[in-house]
Amino acid sequence: MFSTAAAVAASTGISVFAAGGTAAPGVRLKSITSRVHAKGASLLIEATEPVPYVATRPDALTLLLDFRNVASDGLANNAARAGGPIAGVALEATDSMGAPISRVRVSLTQAVAYQVRSERNTIVVDFDRTADRSVTVFPAGSGKPPDAMQALAKPKLAAVDAILALGFSTPVPAISTGTAALLSLGLQQPPTSPPPATVAASPQDPQKKFTGEASTWNLEDADLIGVLRLIQDISGLNMVIDPGISGKVNLVLTQVPWDQLLDVVLRQAKLGVVVEDTIVRIAPLSVLADEQVQRRKLADEQALSGQLVTTNKTLSYARANEVQPLLKNLLSSRGVVQVDPRTNTLIITDLQGRVDTVSSLVGSLDRAEPQVEIEARIVQTDSEYARALGIQWGFNGNVSPALGNTTNLAFPNSGSLAGRVGVQGPNGTGTAVNMPAQGATSGVGLALGAINGAFNLDAALTALESNRKGKVLSTPKISTLNNVEAEIAQGVQVPYQTTANNTITTNFKDAALTLKVKPQITEAGTVIMQISVDNGSEGAKTYNGIPSINTQRANTTVLVSDGETTVIGGIFQGNESKTASSTPGLSRVPILKWLFKSDSITERNTELLIFITPRIIRK
């Protein structure tokens, strides 16, 4: 079945195109008739077989139907004065690009909308009925002058540059070598020297705006080259079509700009566009890609055909062996960079252009880095409070005939009772309750005795209260280059010995205050620091002869402004202990319990704070 086309146009004066394939030889138009009905009027164009056509509307009162390679001899025109919106129908003979065209010119009395459809061998054009309030305009030959401007409801659209409509915002200059900048449809490629060819089959840019005149297309198995030639007729492009292009086109589009239609057709057929000044060349992407590869190879060969030059760059601040890996990607395949570590020199051999690029990069990398002075203040406070209250008392009691206080019994006739946990007091009284305050700083004693020494009593009350506060301040300070780690330590090495295979070895463990820091200066004038602070001291305990180390450590990364101080960490430790000593049972007797117990309370608090202050040294 031949391809058909339909076009719908409002009274805006915009041309509308529809196309099919190419008519078979011997096809001709037979007759033109018209009929008026309630919805408007219809124009019927009958051919000997289905034919392709192009419908255009150059102005609001004219409709043109072009039939390529279709004869019109013997045509019966029965619609010269059809009535309704149709003022007249005329047949014209013309040609386009060497092909004969039979053109049917339809003149309208009013600017009304129309629709073109195909019914087998007949092309039907349906016109809407005229509106009462519309301005009636008569065509030439009717006795009244035409007034197309009065019939237009909207101003006519301005002409659009076909090259710009394809998406090229600036003209593409011709290349002296005869090559062209390869540009995929819808993408802009600014010209460079030499301009690189680009082949792309990417999806359409959603930001692209199409500016071509809108048209309605209904194509079925249409020849691809024929469709491209029709687009050329519409757009006026100077188009060159690659001989390797072939295929069919099937699409139904309503009111689509011609440049968008071209974009869709090219992407569907995997074609690309090359623009050289005002000439547009269309070819398969594979062909353009191969041309691009060959062009790149030629450019590479031309670039590599130059003479090699060698230059030396002695670095003052950067290390040559660290800069060398950064330069390899900038060299050509013939280039090489060598390092002389003795003089910290880079030896660069390459083409002159590459050498200049590498030298520029080396100059920007070889610069003095600012230094950073880092000051740490480590404050350690220690407070201890102790309070204790204790008691000691004892007694001696004797029953003896010598003292005159016998029992008047044969047994027991004499005896004694005394404390047995110690001796206290001036009379050597035996201690019965021995609970003094440890390390007492205060005490009072009471000694009582009988006149004959039969009974002695001694009591002592001891008390302690102490309050101790300590503060240790350490201020390590160190300077280092940007992005270079530095370390400072102060302390002692604790020796210890180990025995293995009858050999005694002396080893050392560090108990020191250590500061490690790696600064990084930002463009904003702040300093990012990786900090490790270790405050170690020798512990009181040992394990298998190896001393313990008390450790206080902080590892962190902070961002600090130049000259400002921040607290990177703090450790607070609090210990509280209560001790009570008592005599079982008697320590629970009300009032008397204080004679049989002692209490002590100890509180200890330690706190560690670490402050860091960076200062950038500009000179």
Report the uncertain regions.
Answer: 1-21, 132-159, 169-203
Radius of gyration: 55 Å
Give the class from helix and strand content and strand pairing.
Answer: mainly beta
Beta percentage is over 45%
What composes the largest sheet? 9 strands, antiparallel
- Give the % helix: 10-25%
Please state the overall shape, judged from the principal axes of the Cα atoms: elongated
List the total number of helices.
7
Number of strands: 32
Average pLDDT across residues? Answer: 78
- Termini distance? 86 Å
Question: Can you describe this structure?
Answer:
It is a single chain. Strand 27 and strand 28 form a beta hairpin. The two termini are 86 Å apart. The longest helix is centred in the middle third of the chain and has 20 residues. It contains seven helices and 32 strands. The strands form seven sheets. Strands 20, 21, 22, 23, 24, 25, 26, 31 and 32 form a nine-stranded antiparallel beta sheet that branches. It has a six-stranded mixed beta sheet with strand order 1-9-10-3-2-6, with no helix packed on it. A four-stranded antiparallel beta sheet has the order 4-5-8-7, with no helix packed on it. The N terminus is likely disordered. The chain is mainly beta and 619 residues long.
